[in-house]
Amino acid sequence: MARTRVWQAQARPWRAYWRDHGRVLRDTLGYLSGRFVTTLWVWLTIGVALAVPAAIYLLEANLVRAAGQWRENTGFSVYFEAGVELEGPQALVRRLEAMDGIERVWLTTPDAALAEFRELSGVSDALELLDNNPLPASVRATVTSAVSPAGLAILAEQAAGTDGVEDVVVERSWLERLGALREIVIRLYWSLTAILGLGAVLISGATVRLAIEARLGEVKVLTLVGAGRGYVRRPFLYLGAAYGLGGAVIAAMAISALLLFLEEPLVRLFGSYGRDLEITGFDPIFHAMLLASGGALGVVGAVVASSQRLNRLNVA
Amino acid sequence: MGIEFQHVVKRFENGTEALSDVSVTIPPGSLTFLTGHSGAGKSTFLNLVLRADRPTRGKVLVNGVDIAGLKRRHLPVYRRHLGAVFQDGQLLDGRSIFHNVALPLHVAGMRARDVGRRVRAALESVDLLRKAELLPGQLSAGERQRVVIARAVVNRPKILLADEPTGNLDPTLSRSIMALFRRFHDVGVTVVVASHDTELVGTMGSRVVELDHGRVVSQGRANGDG
Question: Which CATH architecture is the domain B1-81+157-226 placed in?
């Protein structure tokens, strides 16, 4: 079928390809500015859809960080039987220090415990009457943020197996609550990301579909003069990307406004813990991700809408 | 390029049979008129050549190749070898005449310098070069139709298809449009014009295929004066 070769696609020059992109970009900007109110409306709608999961992402990132600062008491205390020689607690300290997940270990000798008790209790006179020090040696360990409640229980169990140990007290209620809270926030984040991301795709797709309907005559003419699907579809993909990117900019502005609004009470809250307010995550990487997500969702909407419509128009 | 219809049947989804066992040969470089009343199957015939549609049965051969078998990715390039003129022109209202005519060349990825040269030549051939910067809305119906013809020929097609190109024009303008088609035929382009205006077609002295209810009722040469 040598004669069919004449109809096989010949590679278009790269210069023509980039010139098309430049032309489409100019046309897209012209199209958007010519319908500014509609464009702004779409940007605001997509912006809200992106801002909610993005704000929850920031909340989760800062929750973990703040929790890391406030969880210094998370760990366990090992109380030895009264009268146990110090070699046992000291050996436990060395063993715990070598374990993964252990942040810090303290040994409190019976004498140190008595001195502390004397100072804190205000009953030093009564203590003078005792023949022997009744307080046991104890070892306290805190764990790193990577340790889960289950991991903490395992560490405590290992410590409890030491000779001479009478009791092990695990302070995990805070860790368990934090874990549950994080789980809720993460699930909320993914659920809202899925729902509102789908919403952004649908908004972009519906708006692009309207643009296709408005330019149906142009689409038919382009098909008639030999434009391929890529050429016909390109302006609509640019339009979808522009809607998504604009929505992401609106979302970033909304989150900035939210943080400004919350700054004063947050400063007070952090101050009450003796810390300065420092929001993590609201950085250039976050903004880049937000823009990329917005652009991608906009393009996905445009691809879905244009594929569907151009298939019905039988555009090759 | 020649066109050959071999026992072509086109039946639409609603059951309407637009073409029934049509066998027609249009030689390369000929000027052929398709005539018949509204609904005779003229537009369907042209759409099958454009590969905007596929036959239900039979073969449509262009340059000896069954175009129903063309792959989707080859269709745009195939259509770049055709020029199409339709009654409702379909010019892009927001673009200048120059840009409208340049469209097939932009689609083909031609260099800007060559685009300018080709578009000026095409507009010159339809005597509209002086109006290149105007918008379609600023032209008369006859001028707009000439712009559509310029757009159809700017890519130097091997086949020029026209569906009722004089449908809404007065007799004088219609004759001038037909004269343009004859000029393209004179330089070797295969021209197929669908028209219900049998009087006008009769004056052209060209090959005529008459369709009625989707069937070929006559084929031959009109006895024209032109």
Answer: 3-Layer(aba) Sandwich (3.40)
> Which positions in chain B touch A222 (Cβ < 8 Å)?
103, 107
- The C-alpha atoms of residue A267 and residue B41 are separated, in whole angstroms, by 79
With beta carbons under 8 A apart, name residues in chain B contacting A223: 52, 79
**H or E stretch including B95?**
none
Domain boundaries defined on chain B: 1-81+157-226, 91-156
Interchain contact, B104 vs A316, CB within 8 Å: no
By three-state DSSP, how is residue A129 classified?
A: coil
Record: contact B70-A8, CB cut-off 8 A: no
- Whether A217 and B65 lie within 8 Å, measured CB to CB: no
Give the separation between CA A81 and CA A257, rounded to whole angstroms.
Answer: 58
Task: Say whether B77 and A9 touch across the interface (CB within 8 A).
Answer: yes
With beta carbons under 8 A apart, name residues in chain B contacting A10: 77
Domains and CATH numbers, chain A: 17-68+178-312 (no CATH), 75-171 (3.30.70.3040)
What is the predicted ipTM? 0.81
- Residues of A with Cβ-Cβ distance to B77 under 8 angstroms: 7-10, 226
- Counting as low any pLDDT under 70, the low residues of chain A are 1-13, 66-73, 122, 124, 127, 172-175, 273, 314-316
Q: Are B33 and B201 in contact (CB under 8 A)?
A: yes
Per-residue b or e along B22-53, where b marks 16 or more CB atoms closer than 10 Å to that residue's CB: bebebeebbbbbbbbeeebbbbbbbbbbbbbb
Summarised one tens digit per residue, pLDDT across range B166-224 is: 877 778 878 888 888 888 888 888 999 998 877 777 777 788 999 998 898 888 776 65
The neighbouring-strand residues paired with B26 are B3
Burial group, residue A282, by CB count within 10 angstroms (0-12, 13-18, 19+):
middle
Q: How far is B154 from chain A (nearest CA, A)?
A: 10
